[in-house]
Amino acid sequence: MDGFQKRKERKKEMIRRAAYELFSKYGVQKVTIEEIAKKANVSQVTIYNYFGSKDELLYNTLRTLTEQTWEDYVKLLESDLPFYEKIENIIFFETKLAGELNPDFIRSSLASNNPDIGEFLDDFYENQVLPSLIDFFKEGQEQGYVNKELSTKAILFYFNMFKNTPNWVDLLGDEGENAQLSKELITMFFYGITGQDPQADHENS
Fold first, then answer.
1. Beta-carbon neighbour count of residue 94 at 10 Å?
2. Residue 43 pLDDT more than 90?
3. Mean pLDDT of the chain
4. Per-residue pLDDT at 100 exceeds 90
5. Residues 6 or more apart from 4 whose CB is under 8 A from it?
6. pLDDT at 26 exceeding the cut of 80
7. Count of CB atoms within 10 A of residue 203's CB?
8. Cβ distance 57 to 51 under 8 Å?
9. Cβ atoms within 10 Å of 57's Cβ, excluding its own
């Protein structure tokens, strides 16, 4: 990539970031190209040249950030961390992942009624996220962390109940205060799956 292309990509990233922040805060319908251009410190013409329209900018921003966020999750899932710690990171400390998507941005994107967005998210979940999560929990079953008698469907449902609980970060507070609470919550998560403390069990094995 030559210097011109690098500058172009940097500008596109600045525009996506500005759009993401404004859409998350105010909603897609209320944000104008003029406001995005001002926040990104570019001209409106530049935005139209790069993305064509506000709808296309929204779709491109959602797709790019979704793929970046998923790359972070894949690195976590494929890391050498113990299964127990991977679960803890995914559920309670997901905001440490560099590309974490603001739920308000997702809601605003879906409310835009752009059919491409719903289609993309459904396809991404079915073909990227779901197969990886299934493999992940199978790994947990093989390692003895997850009850082998439970179906994948039941495990995913239970996992999503925990992960989709709002305001985990607010509940846990500062890092210095959350260690014991997060430990108790993650133990509760596993008690519901295994009926025993998996950490203690593996430490004694």
1. 17
2. yes
3. 81
4. no
5. none
6. yes
7. 8
8. yes
9. 24
Q: Determine which helix (DSSP H) or strand (DSSP E) holds 17, and give its type and residue range.
A: helix 3-26
The answer to whether the Cα torsion of 112, 115, 116, 121 is positive or negative is positive
C-alpha 102/C-alpha 120 separation (Å) is 17
Whole-angstrom distance, CA of residue 92 vs CA of residue 186: 9
- Token pair recorded at residue 196: 């025993």
Whether 38 shows a pLDDT value over 50: the answer reads: yes
pLDDT on residue 95? 46
Dihedral of the CA atoms 56, 61, 67, 68 (nearest 10)?
Answer: 160
Q: Is the pTM of this model over 0.90?
A: no
Instruction: List Cα–Cα distances, 168 to 29, 125, 190, in angstroms.
Output: 28, 23, 17
Tens-place pLDDT, residues 144-181? 888 888 898 998 887 877 666 655 545 555 555 555 66
Query: Among residues 179, 62, 171, 47, which one has the least CA distance to residue 109?
Result: 62
| DSSP tally for the chain: helices H, then strands E | 12, 0
Alpha-carbon span 29 to 7, nearest angstrom: 29
- Residue 48: the pLDDT is 97
Helix (H) or strand (E) holding 59: helix 54-77
Distance of CA 48 to the CA centre of its chain: 28
